[in-house]
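Tutorial sheet, problem 5. The three components below are modelled jointly, 812 residues in total.
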Amino acid sequence: MTKIADMTENSPEQRKKIYWKDYIKYIPEDDYFFFRSCIRQTFFPGAEQAFLAILKNNLHKNYFDDPRLTTCTGIGYHSDIIPLETLHTMIARHFSIMNESGYSNLVISCVTTFGVMIEVLNTWHEFPETLEKARENLQKTTGRTFELPKAIAHASDIIYLYRDEIAKQSVYKLINKETGKPLKVVDHVGCHYAKIFPHHGIGGAEFPKVLSEMIKTWGGEVVDYPERRHCCGFGFRQYLIKESRGYSLTHAQIKFESMQPFHPDLILTNCPGCNMFMDRWQYVIQETTGKVYSSSGNGIPVLTYEELAALLLGYDPVQIGLFMHQTDVLPLLEKLGIQFNKNEYAKLREESLDLAKIL
Amino acid sequence: MKKIVIIGGGIAGLEVSRLLLQEGFPVTLIEKSSHLGGNIRNYAYLFPDFTPSEEILKNYTSLPGNADLQLLLNTEIEKIDFSSRPYTLFSNDGIAISADSIIIATGYQIFDARLKEEFGYGIYDGVITSVEMEKMIREQHIVTPYGKAPRRIAFIHCVGSRDAKVGNTYCSRLCCITAIKQAIETKKLLPQAEIFCFYIDLRMYGLTFEELYLNAQKEYNIQFVRGRLSETSEMIDKRLIIKAEDTLIGRPLKMMTDMLVLMVGMEASNFSKQFAYHNGLEIGEHGFFKPLNQFNARGKSQKEGIYFAGTSIGPMSVAETIEHAQATALSTISYLKGKEN
Amino acid sequence: MATFDFLEIRHLHIDYDNLDQELLNEVIREEPSFQWCISCGCCTATCSAGNHTTFNIRRISLILRRGEVEGLEEELKKCMLCGKCTLVCPRDIQLRNVVMNIKKIILKKKTA
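Model answer (structure tokens):
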């Protein structure tokens, strides 16, 4: 009789509420088993490091960064080159390693991995025979057994959970130092964070609030623009095959065109792919058409939630690798009034751009 | 003398009361709000001929003065004791009322459009429901939340109806014709405005509904686009961008509009569902009360002496509600005279 | 960089805010019944030209209403003006007159 419970809740006061605000899930509070992303460490190597540093130095949480972990196979899986059974066995191995290390709260850095893990867990739940098959395959190939994680969260969920604590400790706020006005921030939540299983995302799929709540808590203004929910253009098959890379680019372009009138100061993401493409495609569009989407500078800076948290907490922009971003972060750093070694930043940025050119 | 209790003071409850009183039966009419009339008060003019809803309510103005009528406003029935005859009803303020026959006319509620979060109701000010539109039509003053006359208005059919995602898989029937009615009224008030109806199917089931549809095209240049709204978003100037497919052309369509009217469907009221649950009355798969059958006992419940009137059994127009109430009144009278069980 | 081609995805959208409705309005002025169409498709089913070519008279009405006038003139050359569409139309739309008027208006524009 769950229906009755729903009904009694529906008092006139309740009818004024916004339903998506109810999409709240359990986020573990400590003892995290950290699952890294494959690509982030290459593109924005400071981001994951910033996350771990915040956990350790600011939030005083216990975590384990296990070097034995490999890939979740997400990219291969979504581009049809990794069979489902292989994926299941790989995930089973990661769970086994987590058990062995004595952890049960899985915290995932990558939105693709997060989507994959949730999907695998749901598949195993709906079709128990696939779980048995995964156990059998893992036993045969590695001699390992495994238990399912007790809790599963995306790394942005953890930052979301401790957003107030971060605000308390922060040195800077999302406020333009010159004008004193809140900075305008666009949030872009990775599709696989909540669009596959809305109840696994804070705020659900239509209005995920995992990033927007951080922005508000840290003093910024959230920009709600028409193409807010549109894909960044990552779409595995689109960018992997050169011929269809135009699709990827056009998707990103749709978003930039739509957010431009709002003059955002920053794009905040929680997915390695989105971060990468929103950053790189701005550069590509600029190079090919000359179009720049920011009112000044060389584009709208794109940061991840950890990079932003670290910045506000006073971490050195150079140390967290912000020079690796193709769309220059400097205008944002200046608006925030962050003190750092600009010469070193400029030198490293030049080197990193040179490297990109050779490639 | 046999005692009859009618639960619900909307037009169904009022019509049953009127007929039973006319036939000499004393009636107790129980209404949970402070006034009679129910949901019809939300509508200024009725389809298909723009009759003011006051005309319907006028038929019942003399009722409260009737000596045989016991009117209990602000009263909710919580529990019915079916164990002995006559039945005993218990209200929220502890009053016990006995009844030989009970007529359930608890009506409907409109779909809470916030549940379709992608449509933007409750999020963007320019998105309103058909009930809010009707209010503006009553006031003969249609403006955007920003005080301007809208230049383009889109009516979205089937909001909360025919939608598994919100658990209402049935057609609410009246929204199509209501949209056309409101579109025409809007066009009369704002001759310069462009008006669009986004529909899945246009269900013009009434004899004169199709004429009204043709008239909307012919006289009022109302544009019909076959395709359902997929999402709403807001531009920096507060205009809304809507996305749908033009399914007749087979391509996605994007449109800027000043105002979006969601044609919210009827659903079983929470009160009815709770009431049914607490009293062991049967509910059909769509949440409305389940009549004995769908043909010649649409006003009868599974329990002896318990009847239904109006939209407590499903979406109905004003005319249908009144007809159903009349049929139920007749069944009740036959039952009380011992001619039928 | 030159190898990145931009797909013009937006052109696949019907962009209602940038429609060319000039021709449509003129057609409606000449033949008001044109706007009563309910896209039932009777006209296309019976169309003599439509049975042997890709001509689709129902679609012509639609694309005109969505302002997509490009290529319309070429398309209308397929119509044999037999008028069967007008005979079967349940809403009594004078389709042959619609076709004639579109042709006339296009021609007038070209020669103007």
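Marking note: The mean pLDDT of chain A is 90. Full credit if you identified this.
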